[in-house]
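Q: I'm writing up a methods section and want to include an example of the input and output format. Could you take the sequence below and give the corresponding predicted C-alpha cells, formatted cleanly so I can copy it straight into the document?
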Amino acid sequence: MTDQSEQIDFIWQGIDKNRKKSGGVIPAKNELIAKTELRRQGYFVTNIKKKSTPFFSARIKTITPNDIAIFSRQLATMLAAGIPLVQSFHIIGKGHENPSMQVLLLAIKANIENGDTLAEALKKNPLYFDELFCNLVYAGEHAGILETLLDKIATYKEKTESMKKKIKKALTYPIAVIVVAFIVTAILLLFVVPVFEDMFKSFGADLPAFTRMVVNMSQWLKEWWWIVLGSIIVSAYVFGYFKKRSTTFNHFLDSMLLKMPVVGIILRKSAIARFARTLSTMSAAGVPLVDALQSVAGACGNNNFAQAVLKMREEVATGQRLQFAMMQTNLFPHMVQQMVAIGEESGAMDAMLAKIADFYEEEVDNLVDNLSSLMEPVIMVILGILIGGLIVAMYLPIFKMGAAIS
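A: Here is the clean output for your methods example:
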C-alpha cells in the first residue's frame, strides 16, 4: 500500500491516446514514478514539475476532506442554477481561499476543456477523489442527475467526516492527558526525586519502603533513560512501518480494537454506519450492487469490515441475496440484516440503508458523549496514582520524622 503522506504533488501536461492535450495533478514519491504511472495510464508527458509549496501557505493550507465536501456542494449548487460545468470550476477555483484547492480545481477545469468527462478528470487526482467519489460522479453524468449526486456526495462526506472528528476527539483527549502525565512523571523521577534523595541521605534514617521504591526507580531511570527513550522511538517506528505496509498487522490491530470495551463498540457501530451510508448513497445513484460493494469496502474504515464486504460482494455476484451474504460475516447485527431484507423485498434499499445509517450515527454520538464522561474520572485516577503517588512517597520520610519528634 502506498503511503500518501510521503508523496509529492506533480503538475503535468501531456497528450493522451487520442492525441488530445491533457494535464492534471498526480501524487508520487518522485518524478520518475509519476512519469511511469502516467505512461501506464496512456499519457505521453510533455511537461512535469513539482507543485510549488510556498513556505507559509502550502504547509498550512493542505486540501482536507472538508474542502472536497464544500467543493461538491458549491458545484452542485452552480449546476442546479444552470451554470456550465467549465465556468463553475472557474468560479469556484478562482474564488477559493486555499491555494492548493485553486491549483487542483483549475487543473481539473483544463482537463474538462480538453475533452475529459468530469469523472475522467477527477480520476487523475486519486489523492483527493477516491473511487467512490468518481463512481458516483460517473453515474450522475450518465443518468443526467450530476447536481443531485454531487449534493448527495457532499452530504455523505460531511456526515462521515463529522463522525470521524467526534471519535478522534473522544480518543485524543484522554490519550494526550495520559501521555503528558507520564512525561511529567519522568521529569519528576529524573530531576525532582534526586534532590529529595540527597536530602534524605543527610537525615541518616531508614526510608519507608514506598519511598525507597520510588528512589530506586529514579536511580534506574537516570542510568538507563536512553534505553527507555530508544525503546519508545523504535516501537513507534516499527508500529508505523507495519501499519503502513502490512495488511496482516492492520487486520490484527483492527480486530483488537473491535474487542476493546466501549471503544470497540464505538468503532463497530461507526463502521456499520459508514457501510450503510455509503451503500445508500451509491444505491440511490443507481450503481449496481456488485460494483457498489467494491467501493463500500474501502469506505468502512476497518479492515475486518472491508474484507467482510468484499466476501459479501463475491457472494452477491453469484446470485446470493445481500441479507444472506451479511449473515455469513457475523459482523452485522440481526436488526441491520432484517432491515436490509425489507429493503431488498420492497425495492427501497437506499431509503432503508439511510435509516440504518441515521440510527447508528446517533448511537455513535451518544457513545462518544458517554465515553468522554466515563474517561474523566479514569483520567483523574491515573493522574492521582502517578503524580500523587510520587508526591506522597517524597513526603513520607518528612511525615515520619515529624511524628518521631512529636
